[in-house]
Design brief:
Helix content is about 50%, strand content about 0%. It is mainly alpha-helical. The chain has two domains: about 130 residues, no CATH class; about 45 residues, no CATH class.
Length: about 230
């Protein structure tokens, strides 16, 4: 998905065209800023850290929009025994990314407006107040698009963007990484090519070479070579 694609309209008619995005950014209280900066402890250059801090001092989405994002995120990735959207900080992640990538702003805000407009029209209430069955019925219309369909293209792109942001936000968090059981850059034990594979191809290891290279007790040692390219130890 091209996350930097910018769409000028996400809802029926011309409502999204009139959005003035800059005026919708509000200042965040200092205590909230400090808490958010503490959470973002990834490596950054001083210039990048200053840029991130500036983004964290502002809030783009209104509180009701954040609630809609939270509801949508929980429908995309329901909570389980491993963790939740809230524990992973997915809503904060989406808020941050929307400020970091301004091209997302019209697309996401317009998509949220479309969700509420559709729900008001069909269910006489906003998206977050619909029943789960009603919410899922709506999302089914944009989550599984027909490839040659001309209708709801923008809504489908909105959902695709949100789905990618939700999954990225969750599975790059501490909670999500634990759920994936990702071990990171951890050395493993290699016992060489299995004997049955060697037998199948009529090959075998040189015992002297095998003793030097496949020894778990010395696997952290740096190999030494002579001037002719032969392994010494």
């Amino acid at each position: 998905m091209d996350r930097r694609e910018s769409l000028k309209s996400m809802i029926l008619g011309s409502m999204a065209v009139g959005l003035t995005l800059e005026s919708c950014v509000t200042e965040t209280p200092p205590e909230v800023i400090e808490d958010k900066i503490w959470k973002y402890t990834y490596g950054r250059t001083p210039k990048e850290a200053a840029f991130d801090e500036e983004l964290l001092t502002e809030q783009f989405f209104e509180d009701n929009e954040l609630q809609s994002i939270k509801t949508l995120a929980n429908l995309i990735l329901p909570p389980n025994e491993n963790g939740t959207i809230e524990q992973a900080g997915v809503v904060d992640f989406i808020e941050f990314m929307t400020k970091d990538v301004p091209e997302f702003q019209v697309k996401i805000r317009g998509g949220l407006m479309w969700l509420n407009g559709y729900c008001n029209s069909k269910y006489n209430t906003v998206f977050i107040n619909c029943t789960k069955d009603q919410q899922k019925e709506l999302l089914d219309k944009i989550a599984f698009p027909i490839s040659d369909a001309d209708e709801q293209v923008q809504e489908v792109q909105f959902f695709s963007l949100m789905r990618n942001l939700v999954l990225t936000g969750y599975f790059t968090s501490e909670v999500g990484i634990k759920e994936l059981d990702y071990k990171g850059n951890t050395p493993n034990n290699w016992d060489g090519v299995p004997q049955e594979v060697l037998d199948e191809h009529g090959m075998s290891y040189d015992p002297e070479w095998l003793a030097k290279c496949v020894n778990h007790e010395t696997r952290g040692d740096i190999a030494q070579w002579d001037d002719d390219g032969n392994l010494i130890s």
